[in-house]
Amino acid sequence: MTKLSVVITGGLHGIGAEIVERFAQEQCHIAIIANAKNVDMEKIMALFSQYRKMGSDVRIIPTDIMDEAQVQDAISKAAASADGVIDICINAALISQAMSYEDTTPDKLDLFYKINARSSYVLMRASQAYLRKSHNPHVLNIAPPINLDPKVMGYRTAYTATQYLRSMLTISIANSEAWKGIACNALWPVAPFNDGGNLGIYQSHIDTLNNLKSVKLFSEAAYGIVTQPSDRFNGEFFYDEEVLEMLNVPLDQFSQTQHNTQRKHESHSEEKNDQKEINYNRKLASQSVYDDALVD
């Protein structure tokens, strides 16, 4: 089986890093498009060494994602290392900062726009020709379902507006004739995680103190979406738990209780690790959940 070729932004921290780890378990070519100036490279390289032992080729292509020419060059390098093909393009980079209206200057709004929205569009455009060469091309944007409730829109103006622009780009790309045959969907967490730097993303009505799950739930959902046939769904907004439920993946394995139990019995868990291959059911839900707002 040919290794999947994956390009991802935001792959050095939080949700993006968890997605990289999940794909590394599947022997993939993974190119992380990122500005790596402020990371612990010794720690990162040690982690990548572990990924190589799994059979994956993971590397960073240092890039300013706000610079179109640099992104195009990075994508060309990523494709060249994978026989000229990109199978999966993931936009996971984002900037989030709590700011009042008074603190949201035009310059700060521009910065949020460049990272949360424009860089996503640039990455998708740069990847398109290489995605065309894939037998099962996917774009996955980490972006929320759009909710125009004033309570949501008035909260963290720069972040909400620019994240919703990424959401709108998802719909635009998915319905563009030029992108026909390439699946473009969005994924968002339904609740905070108990680990992994959850970026403070949550639904306002969720009890954030109980029943929290591991961030690995999100990365499993991301893997589940982009390994489906590209003609199965397009232009959809999925919540992570929704994806795993429709693919018949048990959610309790990601719960805090389950996590603690596994740690207590770690010495007896090696055989169970061999059972991590998930038997994905190809059944799709007839529609996604759109009704509740997710804000940072």
Record keyword descriptors for this entry.
about 300 residues; alpha/beta; Rossmann fold; seven-stranded parallel beta sheet; two-stranded antiparallel sheet; 10 helices; disordered C terminus
Structural commentary:
Mean pLDDT is 82; it is low at 202-206 and 258-296. This protein is an alpha/beta fold and 296 residues long. It has 10 helices and 9 strands. It starts with a strand and ends with a strand. It has one domain: Rossmann fold (3-Layer(aba) Sandwich). The chain is globular and about 50 Å long. The longest helix is centred in the middle third of the chain and has 26 residues, at 106-131.
Beta-strand segment tally: 9
Task: Supply the CATH class.
Answer: Alpha Beta
- Run of helices and strands: EHEHEHEHEHHEEHEHHHE
Distance between the termini: 39 Å
Give Rg in angstroms: 18 Å
Report the β-strand fraction as a percent range: 5-15%
Shape: globular
Q: What is the makeup of the main sheet?
A: 7 strands, parallel
State the CATH topology. Answer: Rossmann fold
Unreliable runs: 202-206, 258-296
**What's the pLDDT, averaged over the residues?**
82
Q: CATH architecture, please?
A: 3-Layer(aba) Sandwich
**Count of separate structural domains:** 1
Number of helices: 10
CATH superfamily: NAD(P)-binding Rossmann-like Domain
Structural class based on helices, strands and sheet pairing: alpha/beta
Strand order of the largest sheet: 3-2-1-4-5-6-8
> What's the helical proportion of residues?
25-40%
